[in-house]
Design a protein that fits this description.
Chain lengths: 918, 178
């Protein structure tokens, strides 16, 4: 718990037990103790607040809130109450109330540094920049400490950053901030490094690069000491922005002499060199040298510079650095781009790369290094290159199978690198099937050998190798990720749960790789696992808002001003995460599909979730794709790698699918609320208006769904294929081809004002949808396995559709029931036994009957699948084909698990069908 | 062949290749933000030319100057598997030591799992020695005690007599370390 003030205060002694109970999570005792204390000391406000904290933590939010407000209206000025209220409001997610609290406190105690400072922080928590600026100045006036002054300045910068109108930022906020700092500079009051950093930040944002350079290079710049090379980095940044290529060149040169491995400076060295050449820049007259030292302006000089750096490394006794050798390749690449013949002076790229491999081939990163420069080799040299590299890999005598093996780990690493390079060169992809199979055999043999120191059938073989690999290297993340991916593609989600949890992915990793779980769990019918996966992610996202605010405040306290906008951008990035929106939506849909109308009615479920049909809380225009789509390492050739276009298409596809899902959710919500409408007979005017407002929401959502489905159809027409190790395809295409309800939304969701004709507008579940689910999900023929996981996905869509259809039907029933009873009353009066039931009622009954039929069929289908899956004699599979018994077994049991969950859900729905009688 | 620069929040979205390593802990967001807010200069990342993150170091300065305990601390140091054996960890440690020198620290210290021989040997090569053993410093995710740590130290130039690294013979408990 927060600071407890002064030990001498008798109130502190009295309150202490309550604090202790709260600290230990004993909220009930805390409440009791507070009540006891309040009986004796009615005016001990803090006790009330502590009681409120206890109440809040035991789920009694309303009681807690009103108790807190009792104290807050008294505008307390004692430390204990203020701190406790601050904690309470934060736990209640009402940080804005803390500002009110301290606003009142500073009014009563206007000279308190502490309360003013709390007020500033309270504003910071909610991002009230203008008020922060004022609060900072107020603080500075009470206690003229520099940090307070600069808090105020930074708040101006934040106003500039958050301003909608860039002009306002450039002409008002930033210039004002600049003047505030200049004032301190003139009065020679600058004290801390943070203040200079902030000055630099302001000038940079104003585009005043010359002034910024003067600050960094002048006496103020001497304060920039914490970060290594802080001044150099800042100068470089400004040189680049000002296009001061001579300075940029000379500084890069200087820094490379000191650290010949720092890649960024090679890039700036080459960039500046070519800029200078393009401008035919020449050294000025004597005495006007560049402040940063000698400038290089010719290719000859650059070639010499790089060659010298390489020679320096060659002569070194200690470990050589890779930088200079790669710089040489980079220079060739750039010279070639410019069509400059001088590249020859650096040597033949093939020879240089072979040399590089000679020096660094036993390093695991050799592949990533050389990969960037493979394009320097003409296609006809590729095989030769591989051959030359092969000569540098010491392999033992070839055995019976014709394979020679490396003798130690260094040789193994070299061999591996050659394999990776030949893959990256496309040599492996160019093999015919036989060649590929031989390569697989060879690689497997190498893997097995290495352990002394690791078509669908191919898929099963991969699984086998990976499983074996994992048993030897139980913490290899790539093995796990690959296994996870393969199981998902096989439609077997159960093994994935353990694999993923063994990766120990936490916190931000839920956002970056959580998609590996959430993409598949629900779509394969593993609803419990799906819901859990969503929860992991949701817990992370929900704590983010509160967490980040605290560190924005810390950044003010420690003067890490440049981190403040960074933290805010980070928070925004998380809030706008695609994955966040997905798990939010899927979690609610899952709850509805599995629970609504089973334990609670649809209406109650929707209310409990707080879904509002009118509200769309997904940031469609600013969606951030935080997925790590390269978490699986790939050595594939360039044309098979994940491109920016793939990323764009995947995000587009996922967004459209998310839109379909979120509209489905909101439509269900609006349906639930329609159902709540009282029967027309008892309704008065206002209620009728209420209903029509609701039904117009429904109409709007329906037309949005139609539009989205049109876009969806266009997207699936593209049939985008992603690299195998890249993002999984969204569920969009399979949803559309399944004939699921969502593809005919307007059919299913009735028009509320067309009550009498309801059943005819309701298309019963189309039987062909179920027929699409038929077939064996796992089949064994001639000792080989065939899987059809898409059948599971289709079945999931079918079950989801059943749920939706039932909800619509139950709404219809609620409309028709009063109609029927009124008819019956009339009938009794007229005693006219001959009058038949109206068509609409018969239609409905007929319709529910046919629905019952489809659901029964579906249940039979699921039962049949379960039976044939269980009956498979998997033990008969030969291991020679590469099957692993454990893996085949876990695929089988995962399919069974999916079928069981789907069957359970269908049975629950079959029960609710019975209640549809009217 | 490495770009060394300040670690930023955006790097949290890209560090899976480093953090999926079983000995590298992924902390909650507040932990990273605290370091970024308080000691941004001590949080450095190495980036490969292709944009992959190679490794990072995360540290802080703490301790009382009066008691000659002001020092640099290595909180986390990790290099992705494919960028090992290049001397990157040594480079990052060198940078952290330089920053600590500038801040006038007396020494640099770090905790390492007793079983992590590769790391212990590397630190020894970089001039670190075992100052003391901390009993059950590491705990498993279920909260059960897991393993002891070595508290390793290296004296900086301010500690001319190298007093800060004289080993303490008896092991200590985590609650007894400052």
């Amino acid at each position: 718990m927060a600071a407890r003030g002064h030990v001498q205060d008798p109130n502190d002694r009295r309150l202490r037990p309550i604090y202790d109970y709260l600290d230990n999570g004993n909220n009930k005792m805390a409440i009791q103790q507070a009540d006891k204390l309040l009986k004796k000391h009615k005016d001990l406000h803090c006790a009330k607040v502590l009681k409120a904290i206890g109440l809040q933590r035991t789920g009694k939010q309303d009681e807690a809130f009103s108790l807190a407000q009792e104290v807050a209206t008294l505008e307390p000025t004692d430390d204990n109450s203020l701190q406790a209220l601050t904690i309470l409001y934060r736990e209640m997610h009402h940080p804005e109330l803390v500002t009110k609290l301290y606003e009142a406190a500073v009014k009563k105690v206007p000279l308190s540094e502490e309360y003013h400072s709390h007020l500033f922080m309270a504003y910071a928590r909610v991002g009230e920049y203008k008020k922060m600026q004022q609060a900072g100045m107020a603080l500075y006036k009470i206690v003229p400490k520099n940090p307070y002054y600069f808090w105020s300045v930074m708040s101006l910068v934040m106003q500039a950053i958050s301003a909608q109108d860039e002009k306002l930022a450039q002409t008002m906020f930033l210039p004002l901030a600049e003047r505030m700092v200049e004032k301190m500079v003139k009065e020679e009051k600058i004290e801390a490094e943070a203040e200079v950093q902030l000055y630099f930040m302001i000038l940079e944002r104003l585009g005043k690069c010359v002034e910024a350079l003067d600050v960094v290079r002048g006496p103020l710049g001497e304060k920039l000491t914490s970060e290594l090379r802080s001044r150099e980095n800042k100068c470089m940044m400004m040189y680049q922005r000002l296009q001061l290529w001579p300075e940029c060149n000379a500084l890069s040169y200087k820094l490379l002499l000191k650290n010949p491995d720092d890649w960024q400076f090679y890039l700036s060295y080459f960039d500046s060199l070519f800029h200078l050449m393009d401008k035919s820049w020449s050294q000025p007259e004597e005495g006007e040298h560049c402040v940063e030292g000698p400038v290089q302006t010719t290719v000859t000089e650059a070639v010499k510079f790089v060659v010298d750096r390489m020679e320096e490394q060659d002569k070194k006794e200690s470990r050589p650095l890779r930088g200079p050798y790669l710089a040489c390749l980079e220079l060739i690449h750039r010279l070639r781009q410019r069509g400059c013949p001088d590249e020859k002076e650096l040597g033949d790229p093939l020879e240089l790369m072979v040399q590089f491999f000679g020096k660094f081939g036993d390093k695991p990163c050799c592949i990533t290094d050389l990969k960037i420069y493979l394009h320097l080799l003409p296609p006809e040299q590729r095989s030769q290159f591989k051959k030359r590299l092969g000569e540098l890999v010491p392999l033992g005598e070839a055995g019976e199978d014709g394979f020679g093996f490396p003798g130690d780990t260094k040789a193994l690493q070299r061999h591996l690198c050659v394999c990776q390079l030949s893959r990256a060169l496309g040599l492996q992809h160019a093999l015919d099937t036989e060649g590929k199979l031989r390569l697989i055999t060879e690689l497997k043999a190498h893997y097995h050998h290495g352990l002394q120191f690791g078509d669908e059938n191919m898929l099963w073989q991969c699984l086998g190798v990976l499983e074996e690999g994992l048993s030897f290297s139980p913490s290899n993340a790539q093995f796990k990720l690959l296994l996870l991916l393969l199981f998902c593609r096989l439609g077997a989600f159960q093994p994935v749960v353990d694999l993923y949890s063994s990766l120990d992915a936490k916190h931000v990793q839920h956002d970056t790789i959580g998609y590996l779980l959430t993409r598949y769990a629900g779509s394969l019918g593993q609803f419990a696992a799906a819901s859990q996966s969503c929860n992991f992610s949701l817990r992370f996202f929900h704590s983010n808002q509160k967490d980040t605010s605290e560190y924005i405040i810390q950044a003010y306290k420690y003067g890490a001003f440049e981190k403040i906008p960074e933290f805010i951008a980070f928070r925004t990035r998380l809030n706008q995460s695609l994955h966040f929106a997905q798990v939010r939506t899927e979690r609610m849909l899952l709850d509805l599909y599995t629970e609504a109308d089973v334990t609670l009615s649809l209406e109650e479920s929707v209310k409990a979730m707080g879904v509002c049909p009118e509200e769309d809380d997904i940031p469609w225009d600013n969606m951030r794709d935080n997925r790590d789509l390269t978490v699986l390492v790939s050595w594939d050739p360039k044309d098979r790698e994940l491109t920016e276009e793939h990323r764009r298409l995947s995000l587009e596809e996922e967004s459209v699918w998310l839109k379909v899902r979120s509209l489905t959710l909101r439509l269900l919500a609006s349906l639930a609320l329609l159902g709540h409408a009282p029967s027309p007979r008892n309704s008065d005017k206002t209620n009728e208006n209420g209903i029509s407002a609701k039904s117009s929401t429904l109409q709007t959502l329906l037309s949005q769904l139609d539009q989205t489905l049109e876009t969806a159809a266009q997207i699936t027409e593209k049939q985008t294929q992603y690299p195998f190790l890249g993002p999984p395809s969204s569920r969009l295409a399979s949803a559309l081809s399944s004939g699921s309800c969502i593809t005919s939304g307007s059919f299913l969701f009735p028009h509320a004002d067309l009550c009498p004709s309801l059943p005819s507008s309701l298309s019963p579940l189309r039987p062909e949808m179920l027929s699409r689910c038929k077939g064996e999900v796992l089949e064994m023929k001639d000792g080989r396995l065939t899987t059809r996981p898409s059948l599971l996905e289709t079945l999931v869509f079918f079950v989801e559709t059943v749920c939706v259809v039932l909800w619509v039907a139950s709404y219809s029933a609620s409309v028709l029931r009063p109609l029927k009873s009124s008819l019956q009353k009339k009938k009794k009066k007229k005693k006219d036994s001959s009058s038949a039931m109206p068509v609409v009622l018969c239609g409905f009954q007929e319709w529910t009957g046919s629905l019952q039929g489809v659901v029964t069929q579906a249940l039979d289908h699921v039962k049949g699948q379960e039976a044939s899956l269980t009956a498979l004699k998997l033990a008969a599979l030969t291991l020679e084909e590469g099957y692993s018994q454990t893996q085949v077994g876990s695929v089988q049991s995962s399919y069974l698990g999916s079928l069981q969950e789907l069957g359970d859900l269908l049975r629950k729905r079959a029960d609710s069908l019975k209640s549809l009688k009217i | 062949m490495t770009t060394l620069r300040a670690f930023t929040c955006d790097d949290l979205f890209k560090f899976n290749n480093i953090n999926l390593d079983p000995l590298t802990e992924t902390y909650g967001i507040p932990f990273y933000l605290q370091y970024l807010a308080h000691w941004p200069e001590y949080f450095i990342v190495a980036e490969a030319p292709g944009g992959e993150l190679m490794g990072y170091i995360m540290g802080k300065a703490e301790g009382s100057v009066a008691r000659e305990e002001w020092h640099g601390h290595v909180t986390a140091l990790s290099v992705a598997p494919e960028f090992r054996r290049l001397g990157l960890a040594a480079k990052l440690m060198e940078m952290l030591e330089e920053i600590s020198e500038r801040k006038g620290g007396f020494f640099v210290d770090l905790f390492v799992r007793v079983s992590n021989q590769v790391a212990v040997n590397m630190y020894k090569q970089l001039g670190y020695s075992v100052y003391r053993t901390v009993i059950e410093y590491y705990s498993a995710s279920n909260g059960e005690p897991d393993e002891d740590a070595y508290d390793m130290r290296k004296a900086l130039s301010r500690d001319t007599e190298r007093k800060s690294i004289i080993p303490i013979p008896h092991p200590v408990r985590p609650e007894d370390i400052e």
